[in-house]
Fold:
Amino acid sequence: MSKKILLKNVHNQGQATFDGYVNSGGLLGLKKALKKDPKEVIEEVKNSGLRGRGGAGFPTGVKWGFVPRDTGKPVYLICNADESEPGTFKDRVIMERDPFLMIEGMIIAAYALGSSLSFIYVRGEYSYPYIKTLEAIKEAYSKGMLGKNILGSNFSHEMVLHRGAGAYICGEETGLINSLEGKKGQPRIKPPFPAVKGLYGCPTCVNNVETLAVLPFIFSEGWEAYAALGTEKSKGTKLISASGHINKPGVYEIELGYPLKEFLEVECGGVWKGRKLKAVIPGGSSVPVLRADEIEKVNLDYESLRDAGTMLGSGGFIVLDETADMVEVARNLAHFYAHESCGQCTPCREGGHWVEKVFTRISKGRGVPGDMELVDSMCSQIAGHTICPFGDALVTPAQSLMKKFPEEFKDRILNGSKSTNPLNYELGH
Amino acid sequence: MTDKKFDVCEKRAEEIIAQYPDKHSAVMPLLYLVQEQSGCITEEGILWVSGKIDMAPVHVREVATFYTMYYKKPVGRFHFQVCRTLSCALRGARDVTGYLKERFGLEPGEVSLNGLWSYEEVECLGSCGTAPMCQVNDTFFENLTVEKLGRIVDRIEAKKPNLKLSVLRDEMGDGLQGNPKSEVI
Structure:
């Protein structure tokens, strides 16, 4: 379908070993980057048009440019491998099958930033990716890819793998930094931004696994080759992790700008069981939902999805078929956010549970007229009133599901009927 | 004041602490050591971590209670965590939970009398493409059906494999060798 950069080698036998990696063309980008001036490395990443793949889509080279090198303090690089957004399982593939790609990208980034110590923060549940990455780091040290004078250059770099312990909020970069410092993973007020005052109060850059894994290509093939892929503003390729009611769930690499409908019907094999499409959540659970009739002219890139009123986000592509009960979907996601709030800001800590309670009573046939307005009013008091974007992430699916499928919520409230297709087992919690 | 119990972890603890510019950063990996040694986070474990990294016990406790993967009370030798979030729910997570409830005859969080089994529902485990799924200790079991899950429980009951990622030895248990991988197209 389109050019593969990140998944090109994932099916190779032995790709997760140093020799396998080098045999598939690995280290070429790092060797070339180490011969350039760090400033030149940053410029080329800017030129490539690469944008952060964790969800925000901020230009990577520009983010690097914010990190000062002359403060006299160490500069830290952190690889955000805390992949926790529901529907997202793309970084896991790189860690499990091609971990040296991530490590090589990290060394390039560290060289550009002037960092001698980096961390990979991997979510606690990712045991197998943790093991594969740990093995790869050990082998990288033994082969001179990490440690002193990397590949015979003057650049030295150490890397530490850190395991999280089950907190969605640690995917937020300042929450992650607090967690890495040995605190609760509660986000910090910005400014100061991590670029200036991050880990241990030092300049810090946090990049997503996928973002870092693109770097070897940008330097082995040249930034022009990367910038030639995708659309005018959305350059390159993106990993899309597709799940839900489709025939072929999995991780796909697409060139940005790929038509959403074609992706769903061709790559994902269409909606399962011969059923009709009802809705798509294109970028992880925190982005607005698209109804089936809204996907026709939408492409998978930052601008097209924004124009359609949603976001590319992390690329967590969740498909819902005609049997999906949208009140139950709203309730399921509300439960997730209520559970994962870090508890720091009152609107989010309390509001998340209130939203879940109202969706639960609607779903159980105990909704009362005015419940939708009630949720809307709670949402407006949460969004924008919290330290981190979690509050916005919480209200987005709640409000967008009510807005796009109002009749389902209204009918349930008026009829007082229970869901005939409940999503979760009632454990009484 | 601290227990002799953690003597076996001393060497590993020192190695972990040495990795970080600030020893407070070692609180999470050290809590994993405690959990591996004691089965859950104990008060004596909190005191041991506190002493190792010069962090007030209350702060160690704060970290231990913030993160869901530190167990505050004992779980079964095989602890099933069923993903309940959207993608798994859409493909039948409720049947997975329902099966475990019936098979073990337990409520979530309860441990069977023989100490072998416990289960709970958890939020997204990042395995949405192979839904529904559950994690047993540190091992993912994916693309589940009730029949497949039944065979998995039978096999665990018969073989009692090691499904834990060992922090103490920093290498994988036997059970993790055959870990299914996420589907890649």
Remarks:
- DSSP finds seven helices and six strands in chain B.
- Chain B touches chain A through 61 residues (CB under 8 Å).
